[in-house]
Automatic annotation (TrEMBL), chains A, B:
<dbReference type="Pfam" id="PF13545">
    <property type="entry name" value="HTH_Crp_2"/>
</dbReference>
<keyword id="KW-0238">DNA-binding</keyword>
<dbReference type="GO" id="GO:0003677">
    <property type="term" value="F:DNA binding"/>
</dbReference>
<dbReference type="InterPro" id="IPR014710">
    <property type="entry name" value="RmlC-like_jellyroll"/>
</dbReference>
<dbReference type="InterPro" id="IPR036388">
    <property type="entry name" value="WH-like_DNA-bd_sf"/>
</dbReference>
<dbReference type="InterPro" id="IPR000595">
    <property type="entry name" value="cNMP-bd_dom"/>
</dbReference>
<dbReference type="InterPro" id="IPR012318">
    <property type="entry name" value="HTH_CRP"/>
</dbReference>
<keyword id="KW-0805">Transcription regulation</keyword>
<dbReference type="InterPro" id="IPR050397">
    <property type="entry name" value="Env_Response_Regulators"/>
</dbReference>
<dbReference type="InterPro" id="IPR018490">
    <property type="entry name" value="cNMP-bd_dom_sf"/>
</dbReference>
<feature type="domain" description="HTH crp-type">
    <location>
        <begin position="145"/>
        <end position="219"/>
    </location>
</feature>
<feature type="domain" description="Cyclic nucleotide-binding">
    <location>
        <begin position="11"/>
        <end position="55"/>
    </location>
</feature>
<protein>
    <submittedName>
        <fullName>CRP-like cAMP-binding protein</fullName>
    </submittedName>
</protein>
<dbReference type="Pfam" id="PF00027">
    <property type="entry name" value="cNMP_binding"/>
</dbReference>
<dbReference type="InterPro" id="IPR036390">
    <property type="entry name" value="WH_DNA-bd_sf"/>
</dbReference>
<dbReference type="GO" id="GO:0005829">
    <property type="term" value="C:cytosol"/>
</dbReference>
<dbReference type="GO" id="GO:0003700">
    <property type="term" value="F:DNA-binding transcription factor activity"/>
</dbReference>
DNA sequence: TTTTCACATTAACATTTATTACCAGGAATG
DNA sequence: CATTCCTGGTAATAAATGTTAATGTGAAAA
């Protein structure tokens, strides 16, 4: 049930069977959720760390004028910030984008891991560092890249992340996001997102159809997007070249 | 020497004298640096956590076309990410913006704090959570707010952060950033930044002159910018109202 | 089948922001 | 004292993106 998470963490360092078991046993039973529900909403007190078992979610904020800004996509195997329970109130919401199952890690279970399983603790800290680095890369993306490069960069990232979690087949992945949801993350209008997607398709870089992303020209796409996967910190570099060469 | 840091951390929870002393003693002697130098550069291996003693710095990345994107401003009392030493290589650089002094916290000293000073550890974790939340707010800012609101929002944030670190006088703070540096953070051209600053000045919201930011209409500015300080997580709420009412 | 609905697409037009290029003032420098 | 450089300010034009509104399309629902 937590293969995707383990698969992701092991890009940082291999885990002992003991660590894998401890992590598995720390989880609360997964809860089934549907598109449109919030895992947790802005202003609420965070009681657990959440883990996406399957399905997709996003971090988002609502602005004064009702617009939604998506700040991160969570795919299967992704964790919410493991320190989150330190805070009194959430400053953003986590919303479900597809039918999904979400498990939790109670605070005490985490404290126990910190105290007794240093390797696993390091892997979890690594995971939050990657989340933070991803946030920084998104900031650069929105601040300095035009719409077409911006979307291209997002697709590069999502494909690598999916690959790392074992969720790709060749150059394809399930990508259950509407153009509206892409727009809210990229800070674009849906109309413009649509224009840009067509352009990327016309240029033979990728297609996005029927909830599936297919990248046709990985090298062309990464060059166009100025994509450098360093920020994903796949520290076991043999695997990094597997990943990137293999795509 | 670490008053600003302590001042900031105590917005989360009060610290025992013992914790204050431990933190003080963990520091390496501050190094003097000048504008244009890098504390650490992209690709380098992070050996320490850094602390700004005085002066300003920024996190930034250089893009393929040579543009610089600033992802965070570091003012006195700000720490780099305390987990950073887990990573093999920096995915961004930290550059000095003014004459400054920078101290370090060695990895072992931090490990010792984690093992023996839980209150202080919580405060340090809180600090990184705030940094991350700030990054998310910047993402929203760049993605969804027009240039004038965007700059206004930045100034709101900087004034509150400075206030929290004890660096304001009334409605004023030292803000040693050029319009170029503001532009690189906001994803705007310098020309447009200049136009917008004039507009904010004309409307009586603030002036930025001679390295000093003076806010003339705090309430007007926060309303215009849609600024909600929740994301700064000043958990001791009595202090929050002090801060915000008092400005 | 028909209807409905969510999502994608298209077009015309408006607005924001970038680009380029030039000027002005003040501080540092020789 | 002249010079240079950094920073801020201005204007004309171009490019990117937003807005509004209408249409198409395919899958689910009735």
């Amino acid at each position: 049930m937590i293969e995707t998470l383990l698969c992701r963490l092991e890009n940082f360092q291999p885990l002992a069977d003991e660590d894998r078991r401890v992590l598995q046993q720390a989880l609360t039973p997964p809860v089934r959720m549907d598109r449109g529900e919030d895992v947790i909403s802005e202003g609420e007190r965070p009681e657990h760390v959440h883990l996406m078992i399957d399905g997709w979610a996003c971090r988002y904020k609502l602005l004064a004028d009702g617009q939604r800004h998506i700040m991160a996509y969570l795919m299967p195997g992704d964790l919410c910030d493991i320190h989150i329970t330190l805070l009194n109130r959430m400053d953003h919401s986590i919303g479900i984008l597809t039918r999904a199952h979400v498990a939790g890690i109670p605070r005490q279970a985490l404290d126990h891991i910190y105290a007794h399983h240093p390797e696993l603790t390091r892997a979890l800290f690594w995971s939050t560092l990657v989340d933070e680095a991803t946030l920084r890369e998104w900031l650069v993306n929105e601040g300095h890249r035009p719409a077409d490069q911006r979307l291209a960069h997002l697709f590069c990232e999502l494909l690598v992340r999916a690959r790392v979690a074992g969720l790709t087949e060749n150059h394809c992945m399930e990508l259950p996001l509407t153009q509206d949801e892409l727009s809210d993350a990229m800070g674009l209008s849906t109309v413009h997102t649509n224009r840009v997607l067509q352009k990327l398709r016309r240029e033979g870089l990728l297609t996005l159809r029927g909830r599936t992303l297919s990248v046709h020209d990985w090298q062309g796409l990464t060059e166009f997007a100025d994509f450098d996967p360093l920020y994903l910190h796949l520290e076991r570099s043999e695997r990094m070249s597997d990943l990137l060469g293999g795509i």
